[in-house]
Write a structure and sequence with these properties.
The protein is mainly beta. It is built from 3 helices and 14 strands. The protein starts with a strand and ends in a 6-residue tail after the last helix.
Length: 236
Protein backbone atom coordinates (compact mmCIF):
# COMPACT_ATOMS: atom_id res chain seq x y z
CA UNK A 1 0.00 0.00 0.00
CA UNK A 2 1.58 3.31 -1.10
CA UNK A 3 0.52 6.25 1.06
CA UNK A 4 2.08 9.74 0.84
CA UNK A 5 5.25 8.37 -0.70
CA UNK A 6 5.76 5.66 1.94
CA UNK A 7 5.17 1.98 1.40
CA UNK A 8 3.17 0.76 4.38
CA UNK A 9 2.92 -2.99 4.80
CA UNK A 10 -0.25 -3.64 6.80
CA UNK A 11 0.72 -7.15 7.88
CA UNK A 12 0.86 -8.34 11.48
CA UNK A 13 4.50 -8.87 12.36
CA UNK A 14 5.94 -10.32 15.55
CA UNK A 15 7.00 -6.86 16.72
CA UNK A 16 3.83 -5.12 15.51
CA UNK A 17 1.83 -4.14 12.44
CA UNK A 18 4.53 -2.18 10.61
CA UNK A 19 7.62 -3.57 8.94
CA UNK A 20 10.27 -0.97 8.01
CA UNK A 21 10.79 -0.48 4.28
CA UNK A 22 12.78 1.89 2.06
CA UNK A 23 15.35 2.58 4.77
CA UNK A 24 12.81 3.53 7.45
CA UNK A 25 13.86 2.77 11.02
CA UNK A 26 11.32 2.32 13.79
CA UNK A 27 11.95 4.90 16.50
CA UNK A 28 8.97 4.11 18.71
CA UNK A 29 6.19 1.53 19.06
CA UNK A 30 3.40 1.27 21.58
CA UNK A 31 -0.32 1.03 22.22
CA UNK A 32 -3.10 3.22 23.59
CA UNK A 33 -6.75 3.10 24.70
CA UNK A 34 -6.73 -0.40 26.22
CA UNK A 35 -7.55 -3.79 24.79
CA UNK A 36 -11.16 -3.37 23.61
CA UNK A 37 -10.87 -0.26 21.42
CA UNK A 38 -7.11 0.02 21.50
CA UNK A 39 -4.77 1.04 18.74
CA UNK A 40 -1.07 0.51 18.12
CA UNK A 41 1.19 3.34 17.08
CA UNK A 42 4.54 3.50 15.31
CA UNK A 43 6.90 6.37 14.53
CA UNK A 44 9.72 6.01 12.02
CA UNK A 45 12.57 8.05 10.59
CA UNK A 46 13.84 7.77 7.02
CA UNK A 47 17.02 9.41 5.75
CA UNK A 48 16.81 11.00 2.28
CA UNK A 49 19.58 10.29 -0.26
CA UNK A 50 21.29 13.66 0.30
CA UNK A 51 23.75 13.21 3.19
CA UNK A 52 23.18 16.66 4.71
CA UNK A 53 19.38 16.53 4.58
CA UNK A 54 17.31 15.98 7.68
CA UNK A 55 15.23 12.79 7.77
CA UNK A 56 11.53 12.34 7.15
CA UNK A 57 9.54 11.39 10.23
CA UNK A 58 6.32 9.41 9.93
CA UNK A 59 3.61 8.11 12.22
CA UNK A 60 1.14 5.29 11.66
CA UNK A 61 -1.87 4.21 13.74
CA UNK A 62 -3.39 0.69 13.44
CA UNK A 63 -6.39 -1.09 14.88
CA UNK A 64 -6.30 -4.58 16.46
CA UNK A 65 -6.44 -6.23 13.03
CA UNK A 66 -3.53 -4.12 11.73
CA UNK A 67 -5.79 -1.98 9.56
CA UNK A 68 -4.19 1.41 8.94
CA UNK A 69 -6.21 4.13 10.68
CA UNK A 70 -3.92 7.14 10.18
CA UNK A 71 -0.64 7.87 8.41
CA UNK A 72 1.23 11.17 8.25
CA UNK A 73 4.76 12.16 7.26
CA UNK A 74 6.82 15.28 7.91
CA UNK A 75 9.88 16.26 5.90
CA UNK A 76 12.99 17.66 7.62
CA UNK A 77 11.76 16.55 11.03
CA UNK A 78 14.06 15.24 13.75
CA UNK A 79 11.47 12.77 15.00
CA UNK A 80 7.99 12.19 16.39
CA UNK A 81 7.38 11.50 20.05
CA UNK A 82 4.15 9.55 20.71
CA UNK A 83 2.68 9.20 24.20
CA UNK A 84 -0.70 8.54 25.86
CA UNK A 85 -2.11 11.58 27.70
CA UNK A 86 -5.46 12.40 29.31
CA UNK A 87 -7.92 15.27 29.50
CA UNK A 88 -9.92 14.42 32.60
CA UNK A 89 -11.45 10.99 31.87
CA UNK A 90 -10.77 11.28 28.12
CA UNK A 91 -7.79 9.24 26.95
CA UNK A 92 -5.76 10.73 24.10
CA UNK A 93 -2.65 9.92 22.13
CA UNK A 94 -0.33 12.89 21.66
CA UNK A 95 2.16 13.15 18.81
CA UNK A 96 4.84 15.85 18.96
CA UNK A 97 6.91 16.53 15.85
CA UNK A 98 10.21 18.39 16.20
CA UNK A 99 11.60 20.51 13.35
CA UNK A 100 15.20 21.66 13.96
CA UNK A 101 16.18 25.13 12.74
CA UNK A 102 19.28 27.22 12.34
CA UNK A 103 19.11 28.89 15.75
CA UNK A 104 16.23 27.08 17.39
CA UNK A 105 13.48 24.58 16.74
CA UNK A 106 9.74 24.39 16.25
CA UNK A 107 7.20 21.85 17.47
CA UNK A 108 3.88 20.62 16.11
CA UNK A 109 1.40 18.77 18.35
CA UNK A 110 -1.33 16.38 17.21
CA UNK A 111 -3.95 14.80 19.46
CA UNK A 112 -5.89 11.63 18.65
CA UNK A 113 -8.75 9.88 20.43
CA UNK A 114 -10.24 6.46 19.76
CA UNK A 115 -13.14 7.77 17.67
CA UNK A 116 -13.14 6.78 14.00
CA UNK A 117 -14.84 8.43 11.02
CA UNK A 118 -15.32 6.21 7.95
CA UNK A 119 -12.73 3.81 9.30
CA UNK A 120 -9.97 6.35 9.98
CA UNK A 121 -8.79 8.46 12.92
CA UNK A 122 -8.25 12.18 12.41
CA UNK A 123 -6.28 14.58 14.58
CA UNK A 124 -8.41 16.15 17.30
CA UNK A 125 -7.46 19.77 17.97
CA UNK A 126 -9.09 23.20 17.97
CA UNK A 127 -6.39 24.79 15.80
CA UNK A 128 -2.84 24.26 14.57
CA UNK A 129 -0.82 23.56 17.72
CA UNK A 130 2.61 24.92 16.88
CA UNK A 131 5.25 26.77 18.86
CA UNK A 132 8.99 27.38 18.85
CA UNK A 133 11.53 26.24 21.42
CA UNK A 134 10.97 29.65 23.08
CA UNK A 135 7.40 28.60 23.89
CA UNK A 136 5.63 25.61 25.38
CA UNK A 137 2.66 23.27 25.42
CA UNK A 138 0.63 21.53 28.12
CA UNK A 139 -2.12 18.89 28.20
CA UNK A 140 -4.00 18.49 31.47
CA UNK A 141 -5.46 20.65 34.23
CA UNK A 142 -5.40 24.33 33.31
CA UNK A 143 -5.77 25.66 36.83
CA UNK A 144 -8.02 28.38 38.18
CA UNK A 145 -11.05 26.07 38.16
CA UNK A 146 -10.94 25.71 34.37
CA UNK A 147 -10.58 21.94 34.46
CA UNK A 148 -8.78 19.91 31.77
CA UNK A 149 -7.64 21.33 28.47
CA UNK A 150 -4.62 22.35 26.47
CA UNK A 151 -2.38 25.38 26.72
CA UNK A 152 0.07 26.67 24.15
CA UNK A 153 2.30 29.73 24.31
CA UNK A 154 5.07 31.41 22.38
CA UNK A 155 7.19 34.53 22.23
CA UNK A 156 6.04 37.47 20.15
CA UNK A 157 9.23 38.67 18.49
CA UNK A 158 9.00 42.45 18.54
CA UNK A 159 12.59 43.67 18.54
CA UNK A 160 16.03 42.77 19.79
CA UNK A 161 18.02 39.59 19.30
CA UNK A 162 16.48 36.15 18.98
CA UNK A 163 16.84 35.19 22.64
CA UNK A 164 16.37 38.62 24.17
CA UNK A 165 13.28 38.97 26.42
CA UNK A 166 10.02 39.12 24.44
CA UNK A 167 6.32 39.51 25.24
CA UNK A 168 4.32 36.28 25.24
CA UNK A 169 0.84 35.11 24.28
CA UNK A 170 -0.63 32.09 26.08
CA UNK A 171 -3.77 30.46 24.65
CA UNK A 172 -6.03 28.11 26.62
CA UNK A 173 -8.66 25.69 25.30
CA UNK A 174 -10.88 23.95 27.85
CA UNK A 175 -12.11 20.40 27.23
CA UNK A 176 -15.81 19.84 28.02
CA UNK A 177 -15.66 16.07 27.55
CA UNK A 178 -16.62 16.18 23.89
CA UNK A 179 -14.94 19.20 22.31
CA UNK A 180 -12.54 22.06 22.98
CA UNK A 181 -14.01 25.35 24.23
CA UNK A 182 -12.27 28.69 23.77
CA UNK A 183 -9.88 30.19 23.16
CA UNK A 184 -8.93 32.18 26.22
CA UNK A 185 -6.00 34.38 25.22
CA UNK A 186 -3.63 35.85 27.81
CA UNK A 187 -0.88 38.35 27.03
CA UNK A 188 2.04 39.11 29.31
CA UNK A 189 2.19 42.74 30.42
CA UNK A 190 5.96 42.74 29.95
CA UNK A 191 8.77 40.75 28.41
CA UNK A 192 9.99 37.37 29.62
CA UNK A 193 13.19 35.40 29.14
CA UNK A 194 12.64 32.93 26.24
CA UNK A 195 15.12 30.53 27.81
CA UNK A 196 12.64 30.01 30.68
CA UNK A 197 9.39 28.82 29.02
CA UNK A 198 7.92 27.67 32.36
CA UNK A 199 7.92 31.32 33.47
CA UNK A 200 5.01 32.07 31.11
CA UNK A 201 2.24 30.08 32.87
CA UNK A 202 3.77 31.09 36.20
CA UNK A 203 3.33 34.75 35.23
CA UNK A 204 -0.45 34.16 35.20
CA UNK A 205 -0.47 32.07 38.37
CA UNK A 206 -1.14 28.86 36.44
CA UNK A 207 0.15 25.58 37.95
CA UNK A 208 1.45 23.74 34.87
CA UNK A 209 4.80 23.66 33.11
CA UNK A 210 6.01 23.05 29.57
CA UNK A 211 5.46 19.42 28.51
CA UNK A 212 7.69 19.79 25.42
CA UNK A 213 11.18 18.91 26.62
CA UNK A 214 13.87 18.84 23.88
CA UNK A 215 15.99 16.23 25.67
CA UNK A 216 13.18 13.70 25.26
CA UNK A 217 13.71 13.88 21.50
CA UNK A 218 17.42 13.25 21.92
CA UNK A 219 16.57 10.05 23.79
CA UNK A 220 14.13 9.08 21.04
CA UNK A 221 16.69 9.69 18.31
CA UNK A 222 19.33 7.68 20.16
CA UNK A 223 17.33 4.47 19.65
CA UNK A 224 17.03 5.08 15.91
CA UNK A 225 20.31 3.38 15.04
CA UNK A 226 22.20 4.98 12.13
CA UNK A 227 19.63 7.75 11.76
CA UNK A 228 20.20 9.01 15.27
CA UNK A 229 23.96 8.81 14.79
CA UNK A 230 23.98 10.73 11.51
CA UNK A 231 21.36 13.38 12.23
CA UNK A 232 22.92 16.78 12.99
CA UNK A 233 22.42 17.79 16.62
CA UNK A 234 19.36 20.08 16.70
CA UNK A 235 19.87 23.58 18.06
CA UNK A 236 18.10 24.00 21.39
Amino acid sequence: MLIAGLLVVAVRAEAGCYRPVDGAIIAQEGSAFGAKDGISYVSTVTRPPAPQTLPRASLMLYDGQCRLLHQESFDEAAGILLEPVALGSTELLQATVKFPGGSGASFLHLLFNRQKWDGVIAALAPTALEHTNMGGFHVGDLGGGRGPGIAIWDAQWDDGAHYDPHPYVLTLYRWDGKAFVGPEVLKTPGKLNPNLPDAVPAAFGLPFKNDTQPERFENLMSVSGPIGAKTPTPAQ
